[in-house]
Structure formats: structure tokens, C-alpha cells
Specification:
With 224 residues, this protein is mainly beta. It has one domain (26-61, 68-205): Sandwich (Jelly Rolls). 8% of the residues lie in helices and 50% in strands. The protein has one helix spanning 2-19, and strands at residues 26-35, 44-48, 50-54, 57-61, 70-78, 81-88, 94-101, 104-112, 115-120, 130-136, 145-152, 155-160, 170-173, 181-189, 192-205. The strands form 2 sheets. Strands 1, 3, 4, 6, 11, 12, 13 and 15 form an 8-stranded antiparallel sheet that branches. Strands 2-5-14-7-8-9-10 form a 7-stranded antiparallel sheet, with no helix packed on it. It comes from Deinococcus sedimenti. Residues 1-19 form the signal peptide. This is 3-keto-alpha-glucoside-1,2-lyase/3-keto-2-hydroxy-glucal hydratase domain-containing protein. Keywords: Signal.
């Protein structure tokens, strides 16, 4: 039996690698960060919430008394990049990938059971949060989903599970997004979620890519 185990394991690894969705807007370059998130690491700072390893994957849980999302950050210097990770929402109300610069938040991708949205994030100074289009795409809480986030100059593109149709992409641009980033962060709001297989690669422009037509941003609700 032993001679067959190693080839099967290698086949499983190779299949998982092939299954990773290809970036759309960018061409990936050298690796900047690769972490399977199977163990807690001092390279990550758990600023809020409770972060543990459960069933071999990273689990973040918000703590109600803190009145803040669970936050887990890794220092990393980059400007243009392709970021991929897998997430299982669990009972969390929302999870985010946060991109931050020297002054604070620069961009964010928010995922909920109903879908996801990329946005220019709030920032100290004249800039304020500006959401891009919502993508209505049910994300089953008990299922692993692959998130791809691409940053190229002022442009930000988010997709989930390899979807490529314009209506399934959250895309926008803002000068703030082009700022040199200093760290990446994962957050969990209102419950617990799990993460695995986070990678960050430097990125250059994909010459075959055409920006999607602008999609409507979510309408503001009166009184909010």
C-alpha cells in the first residue's frame, strides 16, 4: 500500500495548485508572502478578537465586549499585487481583506453570506470610504471560497471562486489605492470565520485585460 500513498498525495497537491483561479487584470510575479495559515505565526499581529488554529486552519472570532472586528495583520511592503486566500464564513456577519498604507486604511474587500464588495477605504485626511459595486453572489457559510484581489495602480478588482463575468466582479479605482502598502489584514465581524492558503505576489499589467464598464455603487439608505 505504501508505494501508492506518495503519488496520490502529490496528485492531490498538484490538483489544488491547478485549481487556483488565474488573475484577470494582472500578471503575477515573484511571491511576496505565502502562508498556508495552518499555524499561528509571530509575523502576524492579532490586534483584536480571538485567533486560533482549529482543524488545521486559522480561525478568527470577534469578541462582543471589544466592540470591534477581530483583526489579524501581517507587515508587508508592496504597491501592485495579486492576493489570494480561501475563506469559510462560518457564522460571521462579514469578513474582510484590508490593505493599509503608512497613513491607515487604503482599500478593503468585504465578504458576507450575500456576496462581496471592493472599496476605497476610510483614511486620515481628505479621503473617505467609497464603495464600488456590490456583487450579489451567495457564499455558503460552510463552504470554502477562493478570493482573488488584484491591485494595479489606482485600480482594485475582486473576484470569488474564479468568476469572470463583469457582473461577478467588484471593480473601481481611486488615487488612494495606488499608495505604497505597509500591511495586509484579515478581519472578522459578528461571529467566527476560517482562513487558509494566503498568498501575495507582485503584479504587472495583463495586456489582454480590458476594464469592465462601471457598475452602479450601492444606493445610500436614508438615515444611514
Amino acid at each position: 500500500m505504501k508505494p501508492t500513498l506518495l503519488p496520490l498525495a502529490l496528485l492531490s497537491i498538484l490538483t489544488a495548485a491547478v485549481a487556483a483561479p488565474a488573475p484577470l487584470m494582472t500578471t503575477p510575479g515573484p511571491s511576496l508572502l505565502s502562508d498556508p495559515l495552518t499555524a499561528l505565526s509571530p509575523a502576524w499581529q492579532a490586534a483584536k478578537g480571538r485567533w486560533t488554529i482549529q482543524d488545521g486552519t486559522l480561525r478568527g472570532e470577534s469578541i462582543a465586549e471589544q466592540n470591534h472586528a477581530a483583526t489579524y495583520r501581517h507587515a508587508l511592503s508592496f504597491t501592485d499585487a495579486v492576493i489570494q486566500f480561501e475563506v469559510r464564513l462560518g457564522d460571521a456577519r462579514a469578513v474582510t481583506l484590508s490593505l493599509n498604507d503608512q497613513g491607515g486604511h487604503a482599500a478593503r474587500v468585504i465578504l458576507t453570506p450575500k456576496g462581496f464588495q471592493a472599496r476605497k477605504d476610510d483614511h486620515d485626511g481628505p479621503d473617505r470610504a467609497a464603495p464600488f459595486n456590490d456583487v450579489q453572489m451567495p457564499l455558503a457559510p460552510g463552504t470554502w471560497h477562493t478570493v482573488t484581489v488584484e491591485v494595479l495602480g489606482p485600480r482594485l478588482l475582486a473576484s470569488v471562486d474564479g468568476q469572470t463575468a463583469p457582473a461577478q466582479l467588484s471593480f473601481g479605482q481611486a488615487d488612494l489605492i495606488a499608495s505604497p502598502k505597509t500591511n495586509v489584514g484579515l478581519t472578522v465581524q459578528g461571529g467566527a470565520a476560517s482562513f487558509r492558503n494566503l498568498t501575495v505576489q507582485s503584479a504587472t499589467s495583463n495586456p489582454t485585460w480590458t476594464d469592465p464598464a462601471p457598475q452602479p455603487a450601492p444606493a445610500k439608505t436614508k438615515g444611514k
